[in-house]
């Protein structure tokens, strides 16, 4: 059986990825094999973090099965490795049903971990302790020289004074028996996939972000954070763990709950933080030449996206260039269907 190509909708926050994913899942469903959506947003993995992550409410999911939502308690610290194992299992199950998987999210590392060749070597406390003791005794330069002998490419990219990274590289080599660089992520799909990126003019995106923050506030963001945060964080809930407490929107509201910030300041900080996140996300996805970019504001966005999927299915997409496509918000460079 020919593998069904995985469709991934990626790009910065507030560009309408969730809506497009729902549209594509509906359009790509077949009798007996409805398409299913797999989340790739790091914070939508958390139960109860709904308003602040713009999670699609259950009654607005159009009956489409969603995976990797509400997986962790907010006190838990998630990891990319855990997500990779669980989400890849979801893709396997969807493929076994002969259905289409639509991945959606703006967490670049999670998308890469799901779709690309990316290994997560474990740790060995004894090996690490031994290397750290040697670093103290012999100095980081001695360990860097050893790394240069075992993996020159890794040594060239890691400075001789970066003890933490040197130790980690030597630990991975000891555990795996392979060069550290052999475990680094590669832009190489582990299964057939196509990425559709949503681009947006900077001014338009800034306006979208401001509107999203307004809606989040009106929909009860502060009450949501209060109900999740622990008493020591100013809330009434069980608490937000280290990872969850860093999420944009949640991190800014916590000082408000403790009486350390004003509502106006917090709203402004969330808006600014979301804009910074959008630029970071565009930088991440913009370095991947395989992404097929579409204008998020296009009136026929659904049709354009389906045309990208059809071209991917037919094997007629333009070849990705060897160099990364660095995009700024609203730029006109990059891969587009027909360009």
UniProtKB/TrEMBL annotation:
Its EC number is 2.5.1.75. GO terms for biological process: tRNA modification. It comes from the Bacteria. Substrate binds at residues 13-18. It is an enzyme of class 2 (transferase). SUPFAM superfamilies: P-loop containing nucleoside triphosphate hydrolases. It holds the Pfam family IPPT. Residues 327-339 have a biased composition (Low complexity). Keywords: ATP-binding, Magnesium, Nucleotide-binding, Transferase, tRNA processing. The record marks 107, 128 as: Interaction with substrate tRNA. Residues 317-339 are annotated as: Disordered. GO terms for molecular function: ATP binding; tRNA dimethylallyltransferase activity. It catalyses: adenosine(37) in tRNA + dimethylallyl diphosphate = N(6)-dimethylallyladenosine(37) in tRNA + diphosphate. Its cofactor is Mg(2+). Belongs to the IPP transferase family. Monomer. NCBIfam families: miaA. This is tRNA dimethylallyltransferase. The gene is miaA.
């Amino acid at each position: 059986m020919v593998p069904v190509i995985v469709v991934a909708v990626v790009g910065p926050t507030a560009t309408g990825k969730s809506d497009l994913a729902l549209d594509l899942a509906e359009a790509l469903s077949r009798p007996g094999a409805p398409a299913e959506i797999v989340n790739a947003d790091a914070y939508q993995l958390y139960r109860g973090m709904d308003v602040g992550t713009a999670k699609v409410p259950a009654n607005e999911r159009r009956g489409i099965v969603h995976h990797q939502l509400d997986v962790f308690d907010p006190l838990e610290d998630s990891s990319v490795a855990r997500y990779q194992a669980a989400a890849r299992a979801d893709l396997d199950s969807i493929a076994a049903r002969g259905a289409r998987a639509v991945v959606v999210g703006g967490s670049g590392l999670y998308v890469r971990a799901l779709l690309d060749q990316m290994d997560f070597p474990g740790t060995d406390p004894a090996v690490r302790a031994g290397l750290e003791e040697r670093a103290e005794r012999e100095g980081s330069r001695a360990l860097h020289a050893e790394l240069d002998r075992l993996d020159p490419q890794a040594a060239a990219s890691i400075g001789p004074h970066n003890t933490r990274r040197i130790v980690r590289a030597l630990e991975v080599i000891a555990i795996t028996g392979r060069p550290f660089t052999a475990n680094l992520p590669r832009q190489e799909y582990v299964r057939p996939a196509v990425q559709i990126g949503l681009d947006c003019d900077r001014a338009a995106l800034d306006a979208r972000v401001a509107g999203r923050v307004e809606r989040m506030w009106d929909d009860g963001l502060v009450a949501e954070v209060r109900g999740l945060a622990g008493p020591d964080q100013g809330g009434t809930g069980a608490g937000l763990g280290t990872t969850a407490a860093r999420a944009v929107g949640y991190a800014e509201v916590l000082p408000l709950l403790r009486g350390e910030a004003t509502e106006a300041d917090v709203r402004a900080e969330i808006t600014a933080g979301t804009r910074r996140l959008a630029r970071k996300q565009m930088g991440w996805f913009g370095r991947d030449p395989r992404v097929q970019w579409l204008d998020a504001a296009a009136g026929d966005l659904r049709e354009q996206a389906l045309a990208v999927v059809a071209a991917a299915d037919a094997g007629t997409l333009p070849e990705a260039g060897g160099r990364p496509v660095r995009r700024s918000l609203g730029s006109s460079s990059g891969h587009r269907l027909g360009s």
